[in-house]
Write a structure and sequence with these properties.
alpha+beta, single chain, about 70 residues, YefM-like fold
């Protein structure tokens, strides 16, 4: 974990946010006391990727099977 003073963070914010973007945590000190920690944000998945995919079916037959059977006709 990197530590920096509030003044140094203010003057070199771009450098510290580059570190955070690279996965590091930066602790900010004011008058020698920790006042904040800057953490990278976890990448989130879209809601449609969080659910398990289930095959579509109509009347017990999967859509893909119906399509393939329809091509044979």
């Amino acid at each position: 974990m990197r530590e920096t003073t509030f003044t140094e963070l203010r003057n070199q914010a771009s450098r510290f946010f580059d570190l955070v973007e690279g996965g590091e945590v930066v602790r900010v000190l004011r008058n020698g006391r920790a006042i904040a920690e800057i953490h990278p944000v976890a990448a989130s998945l879209p809601s449609w990727k969080r659910r398990k995919a289930t095959p579509l079916s109509i009347g017990g037959a999967t859509i893909s099977r119906l399509i393939l059977d329809g091509r044979d006709r």
